[in-house]
Amino acid sequence: MLFAIERYAIRAGSRCARRFFSKNVDVLTKDKQEFVLQPESNFTSIRREGQKVLKIAVLGAPNVGKSTLVNQLIKRSICPVSSKVHTTQAKAHAVYCENDTQLVFIDTPGMVSPAECKRYNLGNSFVRDSQLSLKVADIIGIVQDAHNVFTRDKIDPNVSNLLTEDIRNTIPMILIFNKVDKVKKKDILLHLVNVLTKSKNSLNFADIFMISAMTGDGIDDLRTYLLDSAKPGDWYYDKHIYSDNTCEDIIQQTVRAKLLDNLPDEIPYNLKVKLEHFDPGPDDSISALVSVTCPKKRIVNLILRSKGRRLKNIAVKAEEELRHAFRTPVRLRISVQLAQ
């Protein structure tokens, strides 16, 4: 089910479909009044004279803020974000266009080893997708959590192991210190730069950035740097596309992220989230129904406690992010049910 809609004729007035659709569909203009979403077998680049493009692989340990950073850079809440680890489960392309330049960010799951993947029953995408992103990247952004005193002074070994000698010699890398707003003593940042760039085993970084993905500090400088680093080439996506994920995926992942933020411990990882209904209105608004299936009755009661206020809070926060993603009014309903 894509958008939970079987008929794919959508009027041109519905700007949502035109500015946000997936790698699985292509927009074919039939006339001035209508366009149709059609399956696409070959996703080819779009040739434009004088255009520039850059693909950026964003790597880092779990929970360093990669998805929040990508959302800030493209100015849309495309990538799901929560305070818990492993919110991002598979790589996704997030696209930003400015003038003649297109930036394609490859957001990846937090780096884990194959042993960790097996131990915690994580999908193969946690290892595979980071490897695949490096095969197409023009530049690599390695994100460090400057606030984590246990890991901030060393590159995560899972990241280091992925960066082979060939990759280090052929693909430029930049170091991005995130969450610097939480570091009270700024001389610590200078120390971290020295530790990570001046030892004999240091990676050869082309540049270093200090940012806060949460507050937006430093984001404009980083985006400008990437725009300036773009090379002449064909765009990979039409200028109206902002992700290679489907709308269905974005809605489901956003609801899942809010469940992760608002439910304790491991509970949200065991829930099944599914888009049941998607209805684009004539005024460009979106109406969606998402079901959350729980494995146990006590979890249903936990979500619906306080007369449903917790569930309403989850829906409101998910709506806010979806409005920022789609740039259109969104009405979201969430139903909770027990697994049969």
Helicity, as a percent range: 25-40%
Estimated radius of gyration: 21 Å
Order of helices and strands: EHEEEHEEHHEHHEHEHEHEEHHE
Distance between the termini: 21 Å
Mean pLDDT value: 83
Top keywords for this entry?
340 residues, alpha/beta, 7-stranded mixed beta sheet, 31% helix, globular, disordered N terminus
What can you tell me about this protein's structure?
The radius of gyration is 21 Å and the shape is globular. The chain is of the alpha/beta class. Strands 4, 5, 6, 7, 8, 9 and 10 form a 7-stranded mixed β-sheet that branches. The chain has a 3-stranded antiparallel β-sheet with strand order 1-3-2, with no helix packed on it. Strands 11-12-13 form a 3-stranded mixed β-sheet. Helix 9 (247-262) packs antiparallel against helix 11. Helix content is 31%, strand content 25%.
Would you kindly provide a brief summary of this structure?
The protein is of the alpha/beta class and 340 residues long. It has helices at residues 15-19, 66-74, 114-119, 125-136, 157-162, 165-170, 187-197, 219-229, 247-262, 297-303, 309-326; strands at 9-11, 25-29, 34-39, 52-60, 92-98, 101-107, 139-145, 173-178, 205-210, 231-232, 272-280, 286-294, 330-338.
Show the helix and strand layout.
Elements: E1 9-11, H1 15-19, E2 25-29, E3 34-39, E4 52-60, H2 66-74, E5 92-98, E6 101-107, H3 114-119, H4 125-136, E7 139-145, H5 157-162, H6 165-170, E8 173-178, H7 187-197, E9 205-210, H8 219-229, E10 231-232, H9 247-262, E11 272-280, E12 286-294, H10 297-303, H11 309-326, E13 330-338
Parallel strand pairs: 4-6, 4-7, 7-8, 8-9, 12-13
Antiparallel strand pairs: 1-3, 2-3, 4-10, 5-6, 11-12
